[in-house]
């Protein structure tokens, strides 16, 4: 009887040990599965912030909070030049300042010269160029341009008291032109048609003086350049509309800074609608006709004073 009892106890102990071992193996397997799930979840959590980061980067491309570097020429009056106070002024710079204020962006101006400006643009050192830059088919292959902000061309100027009002009135007379300019090329192209001769000059000042003295009946030059000279008080006038030439545009590297270009166009449209555009241009360009109300007879000192005020506005925008 004792032997039978001992045998039964041994069997019970064997079954108890086997059951405990099975429970441990099952727990180990169950532990491995949640560990795998935790790793997958962590991977999902890592992916989510990455998507958020992409969204932030896209939002940052709006141009807000960014200071753009914009290059310009050193001297191309009346678009950019240094006045007697050592300040850079001109149509380009005043427009840029007003557009930046209208659109709420900031910029740093680099005065480097035209060739250096376009080189800096192509190398990515600056974001844009504004320098009386003509929009041409060749340049459009390299740069994206704004809407034209100024339509340039050739003009004919005569003495303020002259009765010459057309090219036909130049028959048998002498006109003046500066060597190597578009004005000179245009004068040569119509000289035979209208029967006048051309005296060529190295310096603009000598050309203007030749007209003022009565030796030449008229002179031909870039329309805005003549208009600037008149705004400074030179007793000339522009009796005819400008002969259409190239248009000037604000340029960025092709495919780059689209947001800056859009802001420039939007600001330019607003300036034209408000009359601010005409106010800026008329500060520097006058025709010498009765239509000039604010700029006719303006002295050089008064013009420089107005330019200085615009420069202070540019500084505030920066």
Protein architecture, described:
With 318 residues, the protein is an alpha/beta fold. The chain has two domains: 67-149 and 249-317, Periplasmic binding protein-like II (D-Maltodextrin-Binding Protein, domain 2, 3-Layer(aba) Sandwich), CATH 3.40.190; 153-245, D-Maltodextrin-Binding Protein, domain 2 (3-Layer(aba) Sandwich). 50% of the residues lie in helices and 18% in strands. The chain contains ten helices and 13 strands. The chain has helices spanning 2-60, 91-103, 114-122, 137-140, 182-194, 204-212, 223-231, 258-274, 276-284, 300-317; strands spanning 67-72, 81-82, 88-89, 106-111, 128-129, 143-145, 150-159, 174-178, 197-201, 218-222, 236-237, 243-248, 251-253. Strands 7, 8, 9, 10, 11 and 12 form a six-stranded mixed β-sheet that branches. Strand 8 (174-178), helix 5 and strand 9 form a beta-alpha-beta unit. Helix 2 (91-103) packs antiparallel against helix 9. The radius of gyration is 38 Å and the shape is elongated.
